[in-house]
Design brief:
homodimer; alpha+beta; 2 domains; Phosphoribosyl-aminoimidazole Synthetase, Chain A, domain 2; 8 helices; 4-stranded mixed sheet
């Protein structure tokens, strides 16, 4: 890697340069006993016979932002999908599409950050592939991660388990990720010390698994809280009634939204959980979340009620606002 | 999908357009009982406790070529990695990075082809994600697939099991895929009726699994047969001695290579298997392959011998040529 400091097309051709890139950048940071960069496939011994499987792609711009980068995000996004499904994340496969000319030093930073996030989440990257695309294509780097987890939760979670009067809980403030990425672009001449909330939500998900009334969990990423609420309404035929004053939103996020015309309800978070629990378990769930680091502002934000399948936001002044399904993309490329 | 015939950025935002795209294009073609487009993760019940896991990215240009397209290739590439590892492919996760402005009709063709290849290989697409990147980025569409298979083979396969005198077998002609894709680009004013060999190699891999002397299998994709031979030499410390006249190469491929200065040894195949077997099992392996459709030209092409770790090609006239590790990319974007 010494002589070339930028990615060449030949780094993707299956030959020496590609082998060196994989050994010196990817395997050096991601190494673990299962990762064999010369193997076509890896054998995983799983103690149970049910696995949980998920995949996600990442095209965030800028690639690095306060509180994270595309590498850590690619771990958190997939690990969190397993966590909210009630699984324990174990293994990741990583795909990288790298643009010719990309700085190898920057690639190193991103891979090191990805490796750190994987260690913190307790997952191992056990398979991977890189492709190099010509200069001008590829936006620097795109990543895709696919996760395998062990199903540890006996009761099935799902939107179809949601019943009228079930409570909707949120683990922390919404929209930090969306606005932090937006500010990092510097397009609007705004700046601030807001950091993305991107993080592993496994502690939040696992804190609720013992509750018999746990129905469903999801992380409100692309499309935000409003989109999760719409998915629940559509799947259940229930009205999702949200109480606006209860929904935690940081002042910085609210101020940026006011200035730029965004609605925090549609902005992505990357380290929050929306949970639906039976009414009798709501207090226990909130107490469990508030006891966790970063969980102080966890809140009961609404409930599912009989009525037409729609999402209603009840405002501070007693008004009601229908939250429509997302149409235009408020903030592209935030994950 | 009626009013918009091209991909918009909003098709990637998590809202209505994305939901419709996923339902009407991806889920319509790929639908199966396990695929829930609204779920974060899928639970897979596997009869055994060992799974085999692999991933691959696809950036082929052009996206459609004689004998295949990026969709079928994304199935074959990953299914074949599981097959040569001695596993039975079961499930795929699919990531799509789609460029804004991409024709939805073309996306449909690609997804339909992917679905057909998956059905033929007996795998189900059970998880997926789409991202839309701005016009000018993304080369139309990139795909990544991650596969899960069941380990059915009791004996472990691996390059470390290869011993001196072991035989190297090849299941069919090399380089068809590389040259078919090259000709499809139309850059050189050449054309021909050569089709890519891209196909599921599961029947070829499974035909050898009963042989006690089976050591190792691999599909010679990026970097071609020469690169597989180099990986064997490096991993074993043995010389890989290949007999050039025994290596099947189609006349069209040889003619194109002669005209354009390519070496078929480095060109990608996407439907061939290289196998290393103990000498006493070579005849049985060849007979099994030749009995399969498309296996008539399967051949014993060389052996592993004591000596420095290198790859030697013995030519028709009794000469020797050292095959170097691939440096320059002869044909970028062929997978």
């Amino acid at each position: 890697m010494s002589e070339e400091r930028r990615i060449l097309l030949a780094h993707g051709n299956g030959g020496r340069l590609m082998r060196e890139l994989i050994e010196q950048v990817f395997a050096r940071h991601l190494g673990n006993p299962l990762l064999d960069t010369r193997a076509d496939a890896v054998t995983l011994a799983l103690p149970e016979s049910e696995i949980v499987f998920t995949t996600d792609g990442f095209t965030v711009q800028p690639l690095e932002f306060p509180g994270g980068d595309i590498g850590s995000l690619a771990v958190h996004g997939t690990v969190n999908d397993l966590a909210v499904a009630g699984a324990t994340p174990l293994y990741l496969a990583l795909n990288a599409f790298i643009e010719e000319g990309f700085e190898i030093e920057r690639l190193e930073r991103i891979v090191a950050s990805l490796a750190r996030a994987a260690r913190e989440a307790g997952v191992q990257v056990v398979a991977g592939d890189t492709k190099v695309v010509p200069r001008g294509e590829g936006g620097g780097i795109y990543l895709a991660t696919t996760g395998v987890g062990r199903r540890t939760h006996q009761r099935r979670l799902g939107m179809d388990r949601i019943a009228p009067r079930d409570c909707i809980l949120l683990s922390g403030p919404i929209g930090d990720h969306g606005i932090a990425v937006l500010l990092a672009r510097g397009e609007f001449g705004l700046s601030g010390d807001l950091r993305s909330d991107a993080a592993c939500v496994l502690p939040f998900a696992q804190a609720l698994l013992a509750l018999p009334g746990l129905r469903f969990m999801r992380d409100p990423t692309r499309g935000g809280l409003a989109t999760v609420a719409h998915e629940i309404a559509q799947a259940t035929g229930l009205e999702v009634s949200l109480n606006e004053p209860s929904i935690p939103v940081r002042d910085t996020v609210r101020a940026a939204c006011d200035m730029l015309g965004y609605d925090p309800m549609y902005l992505a978070s990357e380290g929050r959980v929306v949970a639906v629990v039976a009414p009798q378990d709501a207090d226990a769930a909130l107490a469990a979340w508030r006891a966790l680091p970063g969980g102080a502002t966890a809140a009961l934000i609404g409930e599912a009620v009989r009525g037409p399948a729609r999402v209603v936001l009840r405002t501070e002044l007693g008004g009601e606002r229908l939250l429509e399904e997302l149409e235009d993309d408020p903030l592209p490329r935030i994950c």
